[in-house]
Amino acid sequence: MTSQSIKQFSFIGLFVLCLTGFIGPAFSLLLGLAFTLIFTNPYLSLSNQASKWLLKLAVIGLGFNVDFNDVLEVGRSSFVLTIVSITAIIGLGEILGQLFKVNKNTSVLLSFGTAICGGSAIAAMAPVIKAKQHEIAVSLAIVFLLNGLALLIFPAIGHYFQLSQEQFAIWAALAIHDTSSVVATASTYGPIAVGIATTIKLTRAMWIIPYTALAGVFWKSEEKASIPLFIVGFLFAALINTYLPEYSSFWQLGYAGAKHVLYACLFLVGSSVSLAMLKQTGWRPLAMATLLWCIVSSVILLLITDGVIN
């Protein structure tokens, strides 16, 4: 057996191990990261494609454990907070982008991704502002790094401040970029946190459309964004879970399977990191995005602990 064959066999074995659910989300991510940095990913292109689709599938499956009425209530009760927070984060990102002299498009993508939902928001905004491929790549790489960091440190911070599962869910949903990372981080904190965090984050993600439309006016772009299909799938799963309770045993199987898929996906996400990706980010956009994220996370945490956001 050649060294390449051993590497491939080991990679598949670790993927299956994560899929079983015996390994938690944080360790799955770290395992993938360690493997690719030490041995390199033998299926890099396939991992990138598979992780994107499987993550969407996992998010849809998580809807089988959510009450559709809760989704409506979250959307209604957080309407003003969502508009104010998204606008404030984008505005702060603009200021920091100028302070760090970050490329305009990269700054917009990072701000938009921080404000709404990471990679999905970046992908939606990129064609509207006519972002170049390297600007998109840098933004996605930075968001990935911050997502991974959040997965590792947020639960510890939450326990330090003795946040309830409900409080932690709100914090994670508002402060962590990508939906998948929000779900993974919340799942390490507790089952109640997962449902609340997923609902809040996906409700927030639907604001991609009005904000990209507004950006299109300023950039004089005819590009239109649409709601990501995995959000529609999540809403449909929540809908049938709520109004077809007689099949709850099947819905719970779907939910359990989604969590296993999510853990395996985090291994793939971690294994997709490369030294080239880390090098291409550059210190200015990385510093700008990190400072923006730290400010947003800290302010939201303060507002939650003070009872302003609940």
From TrEMBL:
Cell location: Cell membrane
Which UniProt key words apply to this protein?
Answer: Cell membrane, Membrane, Transmembrane, Transmembrane helix
Q: Which domain of life is it from?
A: Bacteria
Lipid bilayer topology: Multi-pass membrane protein
List membrane-spanning regions: 12-38, 80-100, 106-129, 136-157, 169-190, 202-219, 225-244, 256-278, 290-309
* InterPro entries tied to this protein: UPF0324_pro
GO CC terms of this entry? plasma membrane
Q: Which Pfam families match?
A: Cons_hypoth698
Q: In which family does this protein belong, per the annotation? A: Belongs to the UPF0324 family.
Q: What is this protein called?
A: Putative sulfate exporter family transporter
Q: Which species does this protein come from?
A: Pseudoalteromonas phenolica
Q: What is the lineage of its organism?
A: Bacteria, Pseudomonadati, Pseudomonadota, Gammaproteobacteria, Alteromonadales
